[in-house]
Amino acid sequence: MHPLLVTLIDTAVPLLLPTRCSLCDAADSALLCQACQQRYLRTSTNRCHQCALPLLPQETSRRCGACLAAPPAFDRSIVVTDYLAPQDQLVLALKFGQRLALAPLMARLLHQAIRQADREDGASVPLLQPAALLPVPLHRRRLCERGYNQALEIARPLARALDSTLYIDGLQRCRDTEPQSRLTLSERKKNLRHAFLITPALLPHIAGAHLAVVDDVMTSGATLQTIARLLKRHGAASVSNYVFARTPKPDDQQHGVLA
To answer: H or E stretch including 242?
Structure first.
């Protein structure tokens, strides 16, 4: 079934038939009940502005010590929640369960988080209206297997909410890399070498622009770091990450991103 048709069905069915909360399974007219949204998806602003990991008590700057010592290529990361149970089930259901109706929900929550960040911290980067929204691409083989790109499905409604231009194919994954989740932190950096390219349609719009990269999960930050470096090499003034969930610091990772 075409992914757009799946999205229409998933969006229409809850409006016509009783549905249940995607997290607690309570009967509700929405995909996510208000109780679960308040309990699990309340955006925390006590995060490093660059890598979006929670700031330690002794860290008084807006950036964590690791990002101050070795700044990543991207300038800002906005996330809704941590990639922990039970909210990780929303990501898994979208990514592997074809629950495409969850993508507009994630986009709405991301838009709220972006508005909150823009309002609360007086960000110098204009978070609410990036010049372009760029979904992290899948390789064509994986796209054919899955039938859709979950990052793109989140980016579509988010671009409308932000009134920003969505470049569906602005970035391309030119190598079919191993899934990052299967690799050690040191292997992830090598795995992404020469993995992405910028398409001709996007090139004229990069120089001097604020660009935002959209994804479902940020784990080590290696993918987003690689993309940000590529965009900065082509003249981007700033790069933000708009990501639904952030994996807490793994045991084998220092606080910060994989540089």
So the answer is: strand 238-246
- Pull the structure tokens for residue 147: 């039938």
Residue 18 is encoded by which pair of tokens? Answer: 């009783």
5-14: pLDDT as tens digits: 545 555 555 5
Bond from prior residue into 86 cis (ω within 30 degrees of 0): yes
Other Cβ atoms within 10 Å of 170 Cβ, number: 23
Q: Which residue is listed with tokens 């981007």?
A: 236
The amino acid that residue 252 corresponds to is: D
Number of C-beta neighbours around residue 197 at 10 A: 12
In sequence order, the β-bridge partners of residue 242 are 78, 214
Q: What is the pTM of this model?
A: 0.84
**Most distant CA pair in the chain, distance:** 53
Per-residue pLDDT tens for 41-100?
877 778 999 999 999 888 888 899 999 999 999 999 999 999 999 999 999 999 999 999
